[in-house]
Amino acid sequence: MSLVSFYLKGGPTMHLILACSILALAIILERAVNLRKGKIISAAFIEEIKKYWYRREIDRAIQACKEYELSLSRVLRAGLIRFDHGLDAVEKAIEGAGQHEAAVLRKNLMLLGFLANIAPMLGLFGTVLGLTRSFDVIASYGMAGNPGAVAGGVAEALITTVFGLMVGIPTLAAHYYFKRKVEVRVLEMEEVSLALIEDLAYEGYHNRAATAPSQLRQPEAPPRLRERLREP
Question: Which of 44, 113, 174, 178 has the fewest CB atoms inside 10 Å of its own CB, making it the most exposed?
Answer without folding.
Answer: 44
